[in-house]
Each structure stands twice: as C-alpha cells, then as structure tokens.
Amino acid sequence: MSKLASLFLLTSSLLVSCSAAASETALRPLRQTELLALVAGNALPENIVNEIRTRGVAFGLDDSFRTQLTTAGATPSVLAALSAAKAPAKVTPEDKPDPALLQHIAAAAKLMKDKHYDEAADELTDALKGNFERFEIGFVMGELLREQENWGQAAAVYSEVLRQDPNFPEAFLEQTLTREAKTLRTPGRAEEAVQVEQRLKALQPSAAVNPN
Known about the structure:
By secondary structure, the chain is mainly α. It is about 65% helix and about 0% strand.
C-alpha cells in the first residue's frame, strides 16, 4: 500500500472517530492551525482574507508564525490582512496550538509545492499520530490528494471534514471543485475540466461558503 493510500485511510478513520463542535452557531475567531491549514491547503487568498476580516483571529501574529505562513505559501494580501487584524487580549488555552503541528503543516505545504508528495504524506501522518487537530490536517490532506488527481479520495476527505465541522472555512468550495473535476477528468473532457475549475476558483468570497 502506498504512503498516500495509507494516509487517506488513517485520515478518514480518525475524522470519523472524532467529534467536532459542529453545533456551535456563532463562528469563532480563526486559530493558528486553521489559518495555516487554509494556506497549506491552497485555499483562495481572497477567501482567506475574507475569513480573517469577518471572523477575526484568536492569536497574535509573531515572527515565527509569519515565517511558517510564508513557508506554506501565504500571499502578501493574507499577511497584510493578518497584520491588520486585532489580536485578542488573552489567548485561551484551547486556542493555543501545538508548535509541532504548525511545523508539520508548514513542512507538508512546502513539500507539496516542490512536488515531494510522499514526504508531504509523511509529515501529515506524523501530525495525525500526534492526535492533533484532525480537521485542519484533513483539509491539507484533501489538497495533497487533489494535486495527484485522486479526486474520489479528496472529495471523501472534504466531505468528512464538512460532516464533522460544517463551518470549516473553504471546505465546501474545495469539495465542489473536486467533485466537478472528478466528473470531467475523463478522456476528451480535459479542456472542459479546466474551464470548470477556473470558474469555480473565480467564485467571490461571499459565494464560496456552504449554503447549508
């Protein structure tokens, strides 16, 4: 069994086994792990900026986290929005991330950009074994699968993230995009697939949310 297949099975089983605070109606401020996962998972920069501005952040930006965001591929617009966001007076214990998790996500993102997919899978596997935040890892895992055109597995991961946490940012858009790509990535439909992907990626931040 390949590393990616093993990671998919591990991610799926852990997502199913854990429970999220999906019943919460008010959107809480973004945590560091969520924001880094959005960047690593190739979420649209304008949508990340919108999340920062509408939800706020549950942390203060420091040089270490800025470096990790840059390593993961954060754009200047995302970094500017984060710099302008008001930090909380006090970071609650539940909003404090494990430093190792941030390192795993940032490292996996860089490896994905360099197309070292097996090594990226190793980073995410290590993060999962540490019992870290599984939705964030699942979102990054979805992008890792998408980059290798494993559309069915990627859609399954996004679906499970949404089932457990319907408010997870960007997951609905990525799930929709992946399902469309899976349908169209058949012989003779490559050009149509590219057009659909571009159209979905062009959605405005206000439309790129789960309507349910």
